[in-house]
Amino acid sequence: MALMEIVGLNHRYGEQKVLENINLNIDKGEVFALIGPTGAGKTTVLRLIDLLEVPSAGEIYFDGLRIPESGKQRLEVRRRMSFVLQKPRVFNLSVYDNVAYGLRWRGERKDKIDKKVNKILEMVGLKGYKDRNAHTLSGGEAQRVALARAMVVEPEILLLDEPTANLDPVSTERIEQIISYIIERRNTTMIMATHDMSQGQQLADRIGVIINGKIVQVGDAKEVFRLPKDKEVANFVGMQNIIAGRIVTNAKGIVMIDIGNNVIQAVSDCPVGEEVYAGIRPEDITLALSKSESSARNCFCGKVSKVASLGPVSRVEMDCGFPLVALVTSISAEELDLEKGREVYASFKATGVHLIKRQVGDTL
Asked: What does each C-alpha distance from 262 to 58, 107, 117, 246, 357 come to in angstroms?
């Protein structure tokens, strides 16, 4: 049985519909990431789960029991969850008192509070900060206080809303390490909203994609990022190469896709005549200065139109008679002397092409 079950959830703010028919099951001990663009409804889902608002329609079940709209049972369920906001709110008190707040509110004994607070402060790397006023902390330190305050009450469900959205890379890495520690050592059920897709892939067991208030796909990282359900999801998860075409042959599962002025090969059971998008992740494309023998069924000659350095990798845009984008290591880009106008060969395997059926109304 799922620890948290959401059935037919709809929500409005006045006349504005923000969520539509949300259905989710979260198992005990699972880490579930909700990803989607800004304004898609991620935070609203978390607020409804945390019982901060009552949904316009639909039901929420906790541990098999339907949560009522008000009353003692609703309060009891809320006490079994903790919510860490995108912008951490800390009280104008010491770090120790901030973290101890929830325990005192629950009537814990002073000796137990002291033991729990000291232990959790050590876990988040703030043991030496307990007498500091929380308002003097950096953003990353304040977020660690918020995490400590949430975890010290030992919640069954931890809700995280964009936990690293406003932090520098060093602070982000530290927060992710703490979240990983919580996942590994505490077996806490976790639901996190994030627009950082690498974070979702790294930390979550399953990922849900929410776009325009609707859950459009749920699966593990491989399913969501390599096998997007439709063009909208493919665009959001960074497929980047989404090429419209039509299946012209299918020989024992190897299809040929006519893309207008060229042909792409893929592995698929799609029938001849099917209108599709061929999706290729940029990191699955290999670049070379000459055409070489390889197992890749797709090889196209093109000219580099733009190279952008992204730290350890470079994003390479090419014109192969159709636009193509590749991600290569910066070392490879340097060795190939990639620059605008350079002629290159772009190769990718048929198994690296994900086909998406085109829907009526899709724009090319």
From this structure: 49, 71, 64, 11, 19
